[in-house]
Amino acid sequence: MSASPVVRFAPSPTGLLHVGNIRTALFNWLFQHKAGGTFLLRLDDTDRARSREEFAEAIRADLRWLGLTWSREERQSDRIARYEAVMAELVAAGRLYPCFETEAELERRRKLQLARGVPPVYDRAALNLSEAEREALRRDGRTPHWRFKLDVAPSGQSTSGGGGWDDLIRGPQAVSLASLSDPVLVRADGSFLYTFTSVVDDVDFGVTHVIRGEDHVTNTAVQMDIFRALGAHPPAFAHHSLLVGADGSALSKRFGSLSVRAFREAGLEPMAVLSYVGTIGTSDPVTAHDSLRTLAAGFDLSKISRAPVRFDVAELEALNAKLMHHTDFETVRERLLAAGIGQGEAFWLAVRGNLSRFADVVGWWQVVAGECAPVREDPEFLAAAREALPEEPWTVDTWREWTERLKASSGRKGKALFHPLRLALTGREAGPEMRLLLPLMGRERVARRLAD
After folding, report:
1. Which H or E element spans position 166?
2. Which run of H or E residues covers position 309?
3. Fewer CB in 10 Å around end: N or C, the chain?
4. Cα-flanking dihedrals φ and ψ of residue 300, to 5°?
5. What pLDDT does residue 344 have?
6. pLDDT tens figures, 326-354
7. What percent of the chain has pLDDT over 70?
8. What is the mean predicted confidence (pLDDT) over 435-451?
């Protein structure tokens, strides 16, 4: 590993960040953070039709909410002149060549190849055109797209090592360049494709490690050839497995409900999301981490499984609850004050074990300091309980003192003793320990709820 790795997260601002994006961003962030490296945010916004500034700002907001801070931001739309200059270099070197076929013509050619049992690989017919033939096509109104000439000799062998690399997750990889079509790097409208711009950016920004989904494996073989054509040393690559649903199905059609914004609006904690996404599909146990620092301490690319990873929203929600149950008071002090909750640490420690989300704290605050709807199942017993209330001041021992009195006077015990009191005082079947809630409620409020 480089002493100071440089990684990048490169979303397209064409929609909201989803859980698959989070996993890639997190792996990159943890990798560089553990090694004291640099995390770049690169907005791949060359898709003029679909890129939106509101999505770019949403990406920034989501990353900030997650705590995945970046030291530098770049936008591909600001680098068009640079891409044009590199394009000219490749054209001059004979590695980028114009093609005039329409999509319909290419599709017919692919069908013929398949009918003959031949792989549908582009036959480089455009390389056989004379300059006069190219000019004639331009006069007819045809605008070329541009293909990169892969380093494959007529024999079908690569002359520079082909598409092989030692993947930091998948191990040794080999993709035959001869099995691939020369990729289009520049569309007929002059716009650049990701395959090209990403390489130029990685060279210019000194990216040392590219960590991304395994759906880019074939792209990597092509891009390594582009790196070599530019005289640049390729970065190290690591391709992680993709997420699937809890039932093993693809997540692609369900990303709307699995966006970072959806998680935030559902009241999930950022560290619950990061802890879950960062540990599923690894050899580490799926546990709640209280900070990115502790999550990064145990991160290692070698721990990431190559098998598809099941993402289960129910498991994420359960992990969120576990995180709440162990969150200390100082972590939530300001959030409690912002919610108008002023009794502080005693209240938080009393109720946190019964929270699934932080927002649930408001309901318990109403129980101890506001109004609730008491459930009075046994008015006669509750009247006796009211008469037996100890005088203040109350402590965590008051509940035991009070219920011991009632036990002696009524002969009740167990659920018959405790359940009617809980229902009357909280309006709920279950909840925090009553010995902790009682002092927070105070004698006057308790007496009023016991009264018929």
Report:
1. strand 163-167
2. strand 309-311
3. C
4. -155, 130
5. 86
6. 999 999 999 999 999 976 899 999 999 99
7. 96
8. 96
Say if CB 343 and CB 440 are below 8 A apart.
yes
* Contact assessment for residue 271 and residue 287, using Cβ atoms and an 8 Å cutoff: no
Q: How many Cβ atoms are within 10 Å of 376's Cβ, its own excluded?
A: 16
Least Cα distance to 347 among 437, 435, 444 occurs for: 437
CA–CA gap between residue 153 and residue 334 (Å, rounded): 66
SS3 272: helix
Read off the tokens for 361. 């704290």
Mean pLDDT of 154-163: 52
| 8: nearest Cα among 234, 304, 212 | 212
The yes-or-no verdict on residue 285 having pLDDT over 90 is yes
Closest CA to 271 of 337, 327, 350, 213: 327
Question: 267's torsion region: left (phi>0), alpha (psi -120 to 50) or beta?
Answer: left
Which residue type, as a one-letter code, is found at position 123? D
Q: In whole angstroms, what is the distance from residue 401 CA to residue 273 CA?
A: 43
The answer to whether residue 156 scores a pLDDT higher than 90 is no
Residue the block writes with tokens 């309901």: 363
Q: Where are the alpha helices (DSSP H) in 193-328?
A: 194-204, 217-229, 260-265, 270-279, 292-297, 313-325
Element (H, E) at 41: strand 38-43
Residue with tokens 């999301």: 273
DSSP character for 312?
Answer: -
